[in-house]
Design goal:
The complex is a heterodimer of chains A (273) and B (476).
Chain A: H1 2-5, H2 9-15, H3 19-23, E1 28-31, H4 35-40, H5 42-54, E2 58-60, H6 70-75, H7 78-91, E3 98-100, H8 103-120, H9 123-132, E4 136-138, H10 139-146, E5 159-162, H11 166-171, H12 177-183, E6 189-191, H13 206-209, H14 211-228, E7 232-235, H15 238-250, E8 256-259, H16 260-265
Parallel strand pairs in A: 1-2, 1-3, 3-4, 5-6, 5-7, 7-8
Chain B: H1 14-22, H2 25-47, H3 52-68, H4 70-83, E1 87-91, H5 94-107, E2 112-116, H6 119-123, H7 126-132, E3 136-139, H8 142-149, H9 166-176, H10 186-203, E4 206-209, E5 213-215, E6 220-225, H11 229-235, E7 239-245, E8 249-250, H12 256-267, E9 275-280, E10 290-296, H13 300-304, H14 320-324, H15 328-331, H16 342-352, H17 370-374, H18 381-394, H19 400-413, H20 416-429, E11 434-435, E12 438-439, H21 447-452, H22 463-472
Helix pairs in contact in B: 3-12, 9-10, 16-18
The chains are: A alpha/beta (273), B alpha/beta (476).
Bound molecules: iron/sulfur cluster.
Residues 266, 315-321, 344, 374-377, 379 of chain B line the site of iron/sulfur cluster.
């Protein structure tokens, strides 16, 4: 019946203070914060650092980093995205493990860099991309797949609903990783989001170019979020959360939006500031 | 050659048309309800097929193979169809196809035709061409009939009258068929349509149909449908004219095994279509005496020429991507200004027209990927949308403000120093717009954001600044 103990193992290990020892050797992790989080959601970055350091890992932050090129690429400015990709490849050339707390940026790299590299006709770029792909991890992928933890020792005494986000779902295929991480958080009540797989209507420049349709999609999402009566809506993407929060705030709902990392960084001592 | 896709060349841009539609409660309700029903049915019947993923891959591979050897298969089809007593016509564009069809009808001195299952005829605007030539077309597919009598446009590629509910249909029938006493039940409406159509089936000597598949090996054509009205059109009249796009070719009869599983499950959530008609040329003593196939290009070779987006022509017109699309579900099909609505319309229409028109369509998507997930022939629609956006920009059609903004952003993001400067500048620029810690109104392009959403101001310290400061502090 040893298998029956498996789900309880992380808690047991955590209780014994052995988590760092048993679950993963210390890993040196290079953080690509993304231009978006860097500017608008620095707290998410601090939360990622807090969680990973708490688990005994070390963080590298390369100040030379800028942007993966997603906004340009998806809006049709593929030529402008090319130097951004080259810069990214240069900055992260030597890193073994790269953490990116944004599904859509990971999707940009995984889905589009190989094509951009092929289009560049530069075989060195193509090789660099090929070398890069197995070394990048979205935040929950890093925790669950690479580091093998689902209990990160968090405490968050609130009701939470999870918006799975399109890139997490259909490009990264994160599956239930974010959910498994949340379920281990002490004090947290996870409430299922109805019609969860529907897009929130953000879509980058879509939100501005097609504001009417985007707003209609957002109101459907808000109806579902509000229906859960959760205090907090979370996701693995701050871009969706910025959109959803934008609507929640406009309607004065008082519901908060927090990146998954911020919930996982919370402890009895409080939330990341 | 001049390609025409319905009225798409003169249709308003997507955001403009969509604005009207999202505030139409009736259309939104009808579209939402209908797409919910179809997609739930689809999900159930797809679930029960163990090798669904393999079938999708097979469908994709067969179609890709055909597109790479289209010249060969088209000729093979022509030869086989001719051997079986059919006549094959080639039309390079809409005008030529219309001319061929009108001439065929005139040669029989007919003034009326019945039509079934031919979206392609809407693409070439056949009905107005027929009317201009003094020929009256009668749509016989129930949904097409509703659209025709309602003097309306189709809004879905499989369920053209999806935007109409029963009450609206009853009103249209009652007015146009002159039936003031018509009841409200589905049975009343079908009975009215049946009486109206039977008379046409028995009287009108010429039919025009579309085709789901044209089989190169045998020269056969296949039409699938739910009502049996198609079967009437295909078997009762003396003359049958079938209009199909050149991409509808499949190599072998055997390939139907793949497509007749993929199509009905994806389209209507049925395991099999109630009516599957397959015919080969003419057979003495049964069916039409004369059979013509019009093979239409109308821009399809434009699509074929683009390596990256060629797979657009894999489409088997199942409509699953429309039902899955959160954008389509808010607006219905009319916003797309084309007979081809939804995600497939957003990639097909502009390409057929060599990107001269409908340039707002590749942007009519949040790139959520729901279409790609359900497409039975695995067309990577989001990728193609992005590729087409690239063509719009490359060909210089993007708005100037956007071009400048993207250039500026590209410049700022190229080095960390510039990014830091831009962050600092934005922090100062936002001050006049920030009240009580929230931004509720922004100028220019960003006004679109704050029209319906708030924005949290940029925090005082970027992550990179925080990190730099932290590195300087003594660590515990
Ligand atoms: S693109 Fe795919 S899902 Fe959409 S109609 Fe065509 S075959 Fe169906």
């Amino acid at each position: 019946m040893a298998w029956a103990l498996v789900p309880a193992a992380p808690r047991l290990i955590s209780a014994l203070g052995l988590r760092r020892l048993v679950l993963s050797r210390p890993v040196h992790i290079s953080l690509f914060i993304t231009c978006y989080n860097d500017t608008l959601f620095p707290r998410t970055g601090r939360a990622v650092v807090a969680v990973l350091e708490r688990l005994g890992h070390t963080i590298e932050f390369r100040q030379a980093q800028t942007c993966c090129g997603q906004m340009h690429y998806n809006t049709g400015y593929q030529a402008e995205a090319m130097p951004l990709m080259r810069h990214f490849l240069e900055v992260f050339r030597d890193d073994e493990t790269i953490c990116i707390p944004s599904s859509s940026c990971v999707a940009m790299i995984r889905d589009h860099y190989p094509k951009m590299a092929a289009a560049s006709g530069d075989s060195a770029v193509a090789r660099a991309v090929e070398k890069l792909l197995p070394r990048i991890f979205e935040f929950s992928e890093l925790l669950v797949d690479k580091l093998g933890v689902i209990d990160v020792g968090a405490f968050f005494p609130h009701s939470v609903t999870l918006h799975p986000s399109c890139h997490s779902l259909r490009s990264l295929h994160l599956g239930d990783k974010p959910e498994r991480l949340l379920k281990q958080v002490r004090g947290l009540t996870l409430i299922d989001l109805p019609e969860a797989t529907e897009c929130c209507g953000f879509g980058g420049t879509f939100a501005i170019k097609n504001v009417e349709v985007s707003a209609a999609m957002l109101s459907d999402k808000l109806r579902c979020v509000l229906g859960t009566r959760a205090e907090v809506c979370t996701a693995a993407d701050n871009s969706c959360l910025m959109h959803i929060w934008g609507g929640l705030s406009r309607q004065r709902t008082g519901v908060r939006c927090l990146h998954l990392a911020e919930i996982l960084a919370s402890t009895e001592a409080g939330e990341v500031s | 050659m001049s390609v025409r896709v319905g009225e798409a060349a003169t249709a308003p841009e997507f955001p403009v048309a969509a604005k009207k539609l999202v505030s139409n409660a009736q259309i939104r309700q009808n579209v939402r309800r209908a797409t919910d029903i179809i997609r739930n049915k689809r999900a159930r019947v797809v679930e029960e097929v163990d090798d669904w993923e393999q079938l999708r891959r097979a469908g994709h591979e067969i179609k890709e193979h055909v597109l790479r050897h289209l010249d060969f298969y088209l000729q093979q089809f022509e030869a086989a169809c001719t051997r079986a007593g059919g006549v094959v016509h080639w039309a390079s564009d809409a005008a030529e196809a219309n001319r061929i069809i009108v001439d065929l009808i005139r040669a029989h001195e007919a003034t009326e035709v019945i039509k079934v299952k031919t979206m392609t005829s809407d693409e070439i605007r056949l009905n107005p061409a027929l009317q201009a030539a003094g020929i009256t077309p009668y749509e016989t597919d129930l949904a097409d009939l509703i659209v025709q009598l309602g003097e309306d446009q189709p809004s879905h590629i499989v369920v053209p009258a999806l935007h109409r509910n029963r009450m609206e249909i009853r009103r249209i029938f009652s007015e146009k068929m002159n039936l003031p006493e018509l009841g409200y039940e589905p049975e009343d409406l079908t009975a009215a349509a049946r009486a109206y159509l039977r008379e046409k089936f028995l009287r009108v000597p010429i039919a025009i149909s579309g085709g789901n598949f044209a089989i190169a090996e045998t020269g056969s054509v296949c039409v699938v449908e739910s009502e049996g009205n198609g079967r009437m059109c295909l078997s009762l009249p003396r003359v049958l004219i079938t209009l199909i796009g050149i991409e509808k070719i499949i190599p072998k009869f055997r390939d139907l095994e793949v497509f007749l599983q993929l199509l009905p499950r994806s389209a209507t959530g049925e395991r099999m279509n109630p009516y599957n008609s397959i015919w080969t040329g003419v057979s003495p003593g049964s069916g039409p005496r004369e059979f013509h196939v019009v093979l239409l290009d109308n821009g399809r070779t434009n699509v074929l020429a683009d390596d990256f987006s060629r797979e657009t022509l894999d489409c088997i017109r199942c409509g699953a991507c429309l039902n899955a699309c959160p954008v389509y579900r808010q607006t219905g099909g009319h916003a797309y200004g084309s007979v081809y609505a939804g995600p497939i319309g957003a990639i097909l229409t502009p390409q057929l027209q060599a990107m001269q028109h409908s340039q707002s369509l590749p942007y009519a998507s949040s790139l959520c990927g729901a279409c790609y997930e359900v497409c039975p022939v695995k067309i990577n629609i989001p990728e193609i949308l992005v590729h087409l956006r690239g063509r719009v920009v490359e060909e210089g059609h993007a708005p100037i403000v956007e071009r400048l903004a993207m250039k500026a952003a590209g410049y700022a993001l190229e080095t960390p120093e510039r990014l830091s400067l831009a962050q600092k500048a934005a922090r100062i620029a936002q001050i006049p717009f920030t009240h009580d810690g929230v931004i509720r109104r922004l100028p220019g392009m960003l006004a679109g954001w704050t029209a319906v959403r708030d924005l949290a101001p940029i925090p005082k310290q970027s992550f990179r600044e925080w990190w730099a400061k932290r590195q300087k502090e003594p660590r515990l």
